[in-house]
Specification:
Blueprint (H helix, E strand, L loop, with lengths): L1 H10 L12 E4 L5 E6 L5 H8 L10 H16 L6 E8 L2 E10 L4 E9 L6 H16 L4 E4 L4 H9 L4 E2 L13 E4 H11 L8 H6 L12
Parallel strand pairs: 5-6
Antiparallel strand pairs: 1-2, 2-3, 3-4, 4-5, 6-8, 7-8
Length: 219
């Protein structure tokens, strides 16, 4: 067993050293407060369990997005992806959305996915902006590579952020056309896209310390 454990340790990727992401509160259009924070490793199995039913939901391409996030979270849980992160948006402990990505190196980030479990309140838009904030403002990157796997995603990311097409650059998610958020584009759009209150209210932090699945997910 000791030999197996030692071999497994050698399979784990190195790290550039990720900085913490400070939690923030985002008031939703519903009047509720959503906490955006990092998901802990211990919470990953719950996130996987939460999105698993959506892996067979073809509406708005939830099936492929949920399936890929599930695999990416499993890779993170098993230490098989270098410098991956996962943020969760939660309202009174209920998981409202999940975003993830990773850092290729100090200068380039790779956006993975955004999935919304509570629709109609711009949860996904807020969470996407939060992870761009992490790449650009916290980790100081120069650019983030982004793809969309649904028309909604294309509208929210490529069009609204005026992303730079870089179709010759292969994204890690495959043959989907690659678009790039540059530092100049982030500076142009973050004032209208990136919202939140810091430090996060203590009562909102406390209310979202323990996460739970939505009673029902309507997509």
């Amino acid at each position: 067993m000791a030999i197996i454990d030692k071999m497994e340790q050698q399979l784990r990727p190195s790290t550039i050293g990720l900085k913490p992401y400070e939690a923030k509160v985002i008031p939703l259009t519903t009047g509720e407060d959503m906490l955006v924070r990092e998901a802990s490793r211990d919470e990953i199995p719950l996130l996987m369990e939460t999105i698993e039913p959506l892996m067979k939901q073809p509406k708005d391409f939830y099936d492929i997005v949920a399936s890929r996030i599930y695999a990416e979270l499993l890779g993170m849980l098993r230490y098989r992806v270098q410098d991956e992160y996962c943020f969760v948006g939660a309202v009174d402990g209920e998981i409202a959305g999940i975003v993830n990505g990773r850092f290729v190196n100090e200068k380039v980030g790779m956006s993975y996915h955004t999935i919304t479990l509570r629709r109609g309140a711009r949860v996904g838009a807020h969470l996407f902006a939060a992870k761009m904030e992490y790449h650009m403002d916290v980790m100081g990157q120069d650019e983030v590579w982004i793809v969309a796997e649904s028309p909604n995603g294309f509208k929210r990311w490529m069009i609204e952020y005026e992303l730079e097409p870089r179709l010759h650059c292969p994204h890690e998610l495959g043959g989907v056309p690659t678009y790039v958020l540059t530092r100049a584009l982030w500076q142009k759009h973050k004032g209208s896209k990136c919202n939140g209150i810091r430090p996060a209210f203590e009562d909102v932090i406390a209310a979202n310390q323990i996460l739970h699945k939505p009673a029902k997910i309507i997509v």
